[in-house]
């Protein structure tokens, strides 16, 4: 039985590792997976729900580690191989990442608490379902196709991370905040926003990768604390299998992310995002059809 749960964790890790970096919504795919292939390592439905909510966020830590490793040279400001100017450029990139992270942090923490106080339901309760995911998959899929069409042949205003100013970083961060809605895609929303603001596809994708580090680390920390709070309040016994499932998911997402990130950066040198838009529309339509027929 547990081998089946481990295999599920492998599948979740593969899906996370691929969809986290491609603009197709990792959270949306994980929500769909939890609807169609939920974990069954315990008979306690509350524990499964709490674990599932934590799992779909914390599994992203494996994907984040892949970014840190692949872009270590750009991210680490203390390298002895860097000149003084290169170190300044690295610190400048981190400053812009922090600025870009403010809107999402505000929406994810402050507005979530306000919404829960007013309605007794947080953002997850309101938005995390297959219908919202399917709708946003389609909406952003159409947006990708339209934006690629209108930007065809236009030269980008910004082609490297060093050219991004703090104002532009904040605007990109506002687009990232929209990804609080599942199915939107954090990378998809930030890359779309980047293109609208004049960034090249590769610069927008790379900046999106770096923005993911504080966003996912912060979200994972909040979810872990929330899950531990539930465990302490309910005196629930977490089976060892649950931690194994989480570890397997993180490890697989890390390995798959290494491949997915390299693929996307190579893909963007020759292709547009229109194909991802088509995929999003088809998947969203399929989910809506499945929901209507069941």
Describe the protein's architecture and organization.
- With 294 residues, the protein is mostly helical.
- The protein has one domain (2-293).
- The chain has 13 helices and no strands.
- It is globular and about 55 Å long.
Helix content: over 70%
**Class by alpha and beta content:** mainly alpha
Largest sheet: none
**Total discrete domains:** 1
Percent in strands: under 5%
The count of strands amounts to 0
- Average per-residue pLDDT, rounded, comes to 90
Structural shape: globular
Features:
single chain; 294 residues; mainly alpha; globular
Quick structural summary:
Helices cover 77% and strands 0% of the residues. With 294 residues, the protein is mainly alpha-helical.
Break the fold down into its secondary structure elements and pairings:
Elements: H1 2-19, H2 26-36, H3 45-58, H4 60-70, H5 72-75, H6 84-119, H7 123-127, H8 130-151, H9 166-177, H10 186-196, H11 201-234, H12 240-268, H13 274-293
């Amino acid at each position: 039985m547990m081998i089946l749960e481990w295999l599920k964790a492998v599948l979740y890790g593969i899906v996370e590792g691929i969809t986290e970096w491609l603009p197709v919504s990792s959270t949306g795919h994980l929500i769909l997976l939890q609807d169609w292939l939920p974990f069954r390592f315990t008979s306690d439905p509350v524990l499964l729900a709490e674990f599932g909510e934590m799992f779909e966020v914390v599994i992203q830590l494996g994907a984040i580690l892949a970014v840190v490793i692949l872009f270590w040279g750009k991210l680490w400001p203390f390298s002895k191989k860097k000149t003084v100017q290169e170190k300044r450029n690295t610190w400048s990139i981190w400053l812009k990442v922090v600025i870009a992270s403010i809107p999402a942090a505000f929406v994810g923490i402050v507005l979530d608490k306000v919404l829960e106080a007013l309605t007794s339901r947080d953002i997850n309760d309101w938005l995390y379902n297959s219908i919202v995911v399917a709708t946003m998959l389609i909406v952003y899929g159409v947006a990708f196709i339209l934006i690629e069409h209108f930007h065809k042949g236009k030269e980008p205003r910004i082609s490297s991370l060093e050219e991004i100013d703090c104002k532009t970083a904040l605007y990109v961060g506002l687009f990232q905040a929209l990804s609080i809605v599942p199915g939107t895609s954090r990378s998809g929303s930030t890359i779309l926003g980047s293109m609208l603001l004049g960034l090249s596809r590769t610069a927008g994708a790379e900046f999106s990768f770096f923005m993911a580090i504080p966003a996912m680390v912060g979200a994972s920390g909040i979810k872990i604390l929330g899950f531990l709070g539930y465990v302490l309040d309910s005196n629930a016994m977490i089976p060892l299998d649950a931690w194994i499932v989480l570890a397997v998911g993180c490890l697989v997402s890390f390995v798959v992310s290494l491949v997915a990130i390299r693929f996307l950066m190579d893909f963007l040198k020759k292709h547009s995002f229109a194909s991802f838009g088509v995929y999003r529309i088809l998947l969203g339509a399929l989910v809506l059809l499945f929901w209507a027929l069941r």
